[in-house]
Structures are given as structure tokens and as C-alpha cells.
Amino acid sequence: MLVNYDKLNQTITESEQQTYIDEVLRNPYIPHGNKKEPWKKVDPFYEQMLILMDECDKKYPDYKLISGGAFSGKSQMTAIMAARYLIYPNYRGLILRNTYKQVVSSGGAVDKLRGWLGDKKRLGKYTCKENKTEMFFEAPNGARIYYSYCDTPEQMDKIRGTSYHDIFIEEASEIPGDILEFLPRSIRPHRGKDYIPEGYVLNSNPSFGPGVDWLHKMFLDEDSPHKHYTLDLMMNPFVDRIAYDKRLAEMSPVQQAFMRFGDWNYVPDGGLLLTREQLEEAEIDPLEFDYNDTIFSLIGVDIAGEGDDYTSLTSILYLKNGNVILDDNILLNDSTLEEQVKHFVEEQTEKTKLNRIIFEEEGGGSATYALKHFKHVLSDIQKKNYFSVKMKPVRKNKFERARPLAYGIRNGFVRINKFIPNKQLLQNQFMYVNPDKQIMKKHKSPDFLDSATIGYNSLNSMYNLEEYNRKIRRNNK
Ligand SMILES: Nc1ncnc2c1ncn2[C@@H]1O[C@H](COP(=O)(O)OP(=O)(O)OP(=O)(O)O)[C@@H](O)[C@H]1O
Ligand SMILES: [Mg+2]
Description:
The chain has 20 helices and 15 strands. It is α/β, with parallel strands linked by helices. It has two domains: about 260 residues, P-loop containing nucleotide triphosphate hydrolases (Rossmann fold), CATH 3.40.50.300; about 200 residues, 2-Layer Sandwich (Nucleotidyltransferase, domain 5), CATH 3.30.420.320. The strands form two sheets. The chain has an eight-stranded mixed sheet, sandwiched between helices. α4 crosses α6 and α14 crosses α15. It binds adenosine-5'-triphosphate and magnesium ion (MG). Magnesium ion binds next to α4.
């Protein structure tokens, strides 16, 4: 159930305001900065403040989800929410993330608290101790904030056997729904009766993680029972918003939906690396560039494996202006290979000087054999236009290998000849390329994409295209 901040603002009571002042603004554990160290100031911005005030005078506030993209201030909220209760003696709070590595990672709530609570100079008699074996911070009054993770049964047993006033989850969508549902059973008074507020507060950016369905049911769907607050990078005045947003804008569509827009309802209208629209935008009319501007020209080759695969050749040009053009392609089946390869290579040498042909070496010996064979077949053309013929072993999966090419297309410096043969096929292969081997098995081998990838990666390692184009774009501003 999405919370509207302006409506919420109307409902804030005096008692809530006073509790907020006492627990947060006057809380010694939360750094408020001073004249000497103004950068240590933790100052909740408008939306954070409203979240911190909402129901804060209640002993049993509602379950809460705070969602948002990258740098929106989620972990900061977790740190503030846990530290606010350190003023209550014998408080027990727990901060949880999926794995150990994640819960202690830099920038997370635990990392922030470590910086705040161990600062002797600032805290003096309020300085807290950390017990790294048992994983908790302890204030001088006995209040503790534990931190833990839930990807091992032993750790989960430990959590089950302990009671906490509050559980705070970092990046909840990474944790399976049944665990998220179970955890609140460990929320109960630590020792007999006391009046410390008990709560279950989760933060998360959207993802395809195993907790998403449960989060939808509890917080995100229209008729869900609990409160969902959103934060956004643009609300956060403590970071260089424009610079961060630019960085996020370079990510793939799905990562942008999650990290830049905090969108929980994203359905891919394209592949994981690119949308169809981005591919269409990358098209260029050959009249718009000049083959004489070519600095380096190469052909990437993906040799057919068994079955109904094709051998694919993609011709790629690197131009003076820093642009890369996917210029030509041919798909071949074995019977007519030699003549057609010859013909295709000859055609490229007529457009511009050809520098290199590069083969993808996959497991099995077919490529080695093919390389020898090709060298022989092409030796005549080589005499007129010298080019090297190389073979390069490939590492990582097809998806990872295609990433740099997709980056170039998204950022406008890799263009695709509008009239390139088999254009639709390339588009389709970009739609289904996926890091999951099982998914890849359901599709034909993405031969065109592979040949473009091998050629592009070879160019990229020679010219460091991404850095070069970042510089050009900077200079154009
Ligand atoms: N109220 C605040 N006062 C001071 N700094 C803040 C505040 N809220 C957020 N920040 C700063 O903004 C940055 C991003 O905040 P935070 O790490 O909480 O974001 P996040 O949403 O958890 O991001 P990520 O997606 O990286 O986990 C941090 O440098 C943090 O210190
Ligand atoms: Mg965070």
C-alpha cells in the first residue's frame, strides 16, 4: 500500500513530532555534525523525516517497506532507525541481509553504524563497543544492535532462538519469501514487559530476487495490507544527484528500471541488454558516414557448430570520429562456404582497407581446422590487401561477451548500417541472449551476435572505445 507523503504530513501528531525530536534529533548516537566536522551531519530529508515520524509513538507500528533505487537513502534509514532506539537500556535490534559479505559491505547500514558508534571523539562516554564474533554493537546502557545474515541454516536457527524488539532487513528482495514471512516471529519483548516500540522494517530496491512475490503481496500490490514508502535519488540532497543519475543512465534497461527508477512492475520490453527501440535508434544510413574515414576494419567470424547453426561473418568499421559501424553480415551453411566467404571478404576490401579477420575459438577443434582452411582460401585476396587472420579463445558466456557491444549501442557510439543483411535476426538474438544456459538452450545459437561480439571485443581491446567515447562526450559539453 503506497504511502503519499503529503497526505501523511497532514496526519502527523504532536506526540509523533515530540517522539521524533527525542529519539532522532536529540539522539547522541546519530551524528548531527558540529562546527569542526560539519560533514558528519546526518540530517533526515523531508521524506525520510516523515517515515521516521509515522507511528513512531506506537509500541506496535505497522510492518514497513522502504523501497527505492540506488543512492536513495535506504541504508541510511536503516542505520537511523536502529540507532534511535539505542537510547533505551536493554534494547535489542537486528539488522539482516542475505549473506554475511553483504551485511558488512561498505555503504550498508552496518558499515554506517560502525562509523557512527565507534567515534570516541564525538561520543565520549556514549561510545559503543562492537563484538565482531557475536556480531553486535553495544551502547554503555546495555542496548544492542545485532547484525546477521540468513543464507545458512545455522544462522537462521540462531535468529529463531533469539528475541528482538525490531528487525530491519537490508535489500529484502534478495531473501526468499518464506524466510521474510517467518522472521517476525523473533520480534517480541526481550525481557518481560517494556515499552520499546517493536517493528519489522524492510528496505529494498526492485529486482527479480526470490523475495519479490512476498513483497508484492504484503506491500506493493494495490490491496496489500502494509505500508510502502518510496525514496528516490532525486529526493536525496546529500549526493551529487545529476552525476549519479548520469551514471545510472548508462546501465541496461532492466538495471535502469530497478536502480534508477525504482520500478517494481518492470516487464522487459526487450532483452536484458537492450530494447528493440535502442537497436532501432542505433541504425545509420551509409550516406551518413564515409568509408574513407575508416581507421581499422575487421571481420568477426563465428564458425557453425553442429546441427542447424550458421557460420556468421560480420564486418565492423572503426571510424575517425570514434564511432563503430556494424556494416555487413553474411550467414552461411557449409556446402557453399568457400566461395561465399571469399566473395564477402572481397566485397569488404572494396569498400575500405581490411585490417583483420578474427575467429572465435570455442571448445572443439572445428575452429582450428576452419582457420587453416580459411587462410588457404583467402590467400589470393590477402596478396592484394594484406590483413591478419587470427583466432581468439573466448572466455565467459555469450551474454557477458555481448555486454560491451550493448553498452556501445546504448551510448550511441556503436551504429548499425540500416541496410545490414539479417538485421531482424541480430535484433532477435539481442532480445534472447541471457546469462542462463538453460534459457540459451531453448534458442538457436546467436551466431550473428557472436560474430559481431568477437569483432567488437577485439576492436575494444585495441582502442579502449568506452573511455574514448566518454571523453568525446565530456568535451562536447
Ligand atoms: N539523511 C541523510 N543525511 C546525510 N546523508 C545521507 C542521508 N540520507 C542519505 N545520505 C547519503 O546518501 C548516500 C546514499 O544513501 P544510502 O547509502 O542510504 O542509499 P541506498 O538507497 O541504501 O543506496 P544503495 O542502493 O547503494 O544501497 C550515502 O552517501 C548517504 O550517506
Ligand atoms: Mg543500501
